[in-house]
Inverse folding.
């Protein structure tokens, strides 16, 4: 009888949260210690700073993943392990795996056309010659997703573009980096909470 009563009055298991709002935040870069402090890896640095003490990256299929809870949203942070030119393979897999709508995808990448540290957020666009974006566009079959471009400057001689993007930051750039990473992190949180349009209006104006 006691067991029957226990069964009758047993607390129901909490229902799974089917209303979870998820965002896939992709930081572009190349894996390996030799690339860690290069300009091309600014996407990785932004996600590392955003995760900091609140989330831990673990190796999963096609990349390192961290899950960050923020104001009722789940930010799935992805650092592809496919190397830059095959970034689309990782992005396409995790978009499908996590059922991420295109409007909840944000890709963080470096941009030669912007002064150092400048942040520009757009809701769509061409690859602009960036191989990571080119791969993502091809594998997703669309350019209709948000991207955050972070300026790395263009202080290089003609024909030295590849060497420049794969070179390390200057001392002055390293000193200014924490503030720029924090600004990018705030813009990502803004994207996930107040939406793309308001985030562009707010954070593009703040950028240098």
């Amino acid at each position: 009888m006691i067991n029957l009563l226990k069964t009758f009055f047993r607390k129901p298991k909490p229902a799974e949260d089917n209303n979870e709002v998820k965002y896939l935040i992709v930081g572009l870069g190349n894996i390996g210690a030799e690339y860690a402090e290069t300009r091309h890896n600014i996407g990785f640095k932004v996600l590392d700073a955003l995760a900091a003490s609140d989330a831990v990256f673990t190796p999963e299929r096609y990349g390192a993943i961290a899950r960050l809870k923020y104001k009722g949203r789940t930010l799935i942070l992805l650092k592809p392990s496919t190397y830059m030119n095959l970034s689309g393979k990782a992005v396409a897999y995790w978009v499908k795996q996590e059922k991420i709508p295109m409007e909840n995808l944000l890709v963080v990448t470096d941009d030669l056309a912007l002064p150092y540290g400048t942040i520009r957020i757009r809701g769509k666009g061409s690859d602009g010659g960036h191989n990571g974006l080119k791969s993502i566009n091809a594998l997703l079959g669309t350019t209709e997703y948000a991207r955050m471009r972070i300026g790395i400057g263009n202080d290089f001689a003609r024909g030295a573009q590849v060497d420049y993007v794969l070179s390390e930051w200057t001392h002055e750039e390293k000193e200014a980096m924490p503030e720029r990473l924090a600004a990018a992190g705030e813009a990502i949180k803004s994207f996930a909470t107040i939406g793309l349009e308001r985030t562009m209006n707010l954070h593009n104006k703040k950028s240098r």
In short: The longest helix spans residues 171-194. The longest strand covers residues 63-70. Residues 50 and 204 are 19 Å apart (CA to CA).
